[in-house]
Design the sequence.
């Protein structure tokens, strides 16, 4: 026996129930419970292979994490009419380049995204020119953008995502303003002395562990640090930092992690060859300095302590 169902006459999902009190072979179609994903608050986004979308240190986007961990949380901001913006844990918003590539490096307003529900999953839609509808994909974008996701002009399996709702306190941001101290994972504080030496070997929070944050005027979220000795944290070469700058210092960009922790990244300096480096709490190659590394490890993770 053959039969067909017109999908326009039933909901997206149905429940099939066989009548056990009737010997005839037929099924009863009943609307299933609402299984629409809840795309609000703090969420994680998973692709068809179970990989979570994460931000990268180049403010890119990639699906490569099998678990919800650092960089996989996104805050949903409603823009009205069922649309939204996504903010990553790097403090940036998801943005788009030329209807082809999406990253997470926007400031202020970002990409306006629509949501299409499909059997418990979602497609993130983007309004293109001439009222066309494009789709965010989990596929890599153009390599020239250094970590983007592709925007597709027609939907396929890479455009369907599962949504996991995260508790609101899952990703509290560190507050980097005013006077702060930086504490590494071992409980030691970054400190300077009157000679401008830096170390991170002591658990005591004293005046030498306090730095004044000097935000950059471009409101990019980047900042410089002035030590208790009145000098600016500065970088010599590209491999270590001290606190001896007479005016103007090292430009630092925070990368926010879970539980109020942060990595302090350094980029766009001559000799870095486009790489992103990390301020480390481990000793640098010069006496009285801290290292700048090209890779992340536990020595590059800091808690920010407000001292105001």
Sequence:
């Amino acid at each position: 026996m053959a039969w067909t169902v017109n999908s326009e006459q039933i909901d997206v999902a149905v429940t099939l129930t066989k009548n056990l009190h009737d010997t005839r072979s037929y099924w009863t179609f009943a609307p299933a419970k609402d299984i629409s994903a809840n795309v609000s608050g703090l969420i994680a986004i998973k692709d068809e292979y179970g990989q979570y979308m994460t931000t990268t240190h180049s403010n890119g986007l990639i699906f490569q994490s099998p678990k919800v961990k650092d960089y996989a949380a996104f805050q949903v901001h409603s823009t009205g009419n069922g649309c939204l913006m996504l903010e990553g844990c790097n403090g940036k918003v998801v943005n788009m380049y030329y209807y082809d590539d999406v990253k997470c490096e926007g400031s202020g307003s970002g990409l306006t995204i629509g949501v299409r529900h499909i059997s418990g999953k979602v497609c993130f839609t983007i309004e293109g020119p001439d009222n066309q509808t494009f789709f965010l994909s989990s596929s890599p974008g153009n390599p020239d953008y250094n970590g983007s996701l592709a925007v597709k002009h027609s939907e396929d399996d890479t455009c369907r995502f599962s949504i996991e709702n995260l508790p609101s306190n899952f990703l509290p941001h560190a507050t980097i303003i005013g006077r702060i101290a930086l504490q590494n994972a071992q409980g030691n504080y970054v400190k300077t002395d009157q000679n401008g030496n830096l170390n991170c070997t002591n658990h005591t929070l004293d005046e030498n562990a306090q730095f004044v944050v000097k935000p950059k005027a471009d409101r990019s979220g980047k900042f410089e640090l002035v030590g208790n000795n009145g000098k600016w944290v500065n970088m010599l070469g590209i491999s270590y930092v001290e606190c001896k700058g007479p005016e103007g210092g090292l430009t630092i960009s925070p990368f926010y992690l879970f539980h109020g922790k942060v990595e302090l990244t350094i980029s766009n300096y001559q000799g870095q060859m486009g790489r992103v480096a990390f301020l480390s709490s481990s000793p640098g190659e010069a006496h009285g300095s801290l290292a700048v590394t090209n890779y992340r490890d536990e020595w590059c993770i800091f808690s920010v302590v407000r001292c105001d």
Notes: Residues 179-306 form a domain with the Trefoil (Acidic Fibroblast Growth Factor, subunit A) fold (CATH 2.80.10.50). DSSP finds no helices and 26 strands in the chain.
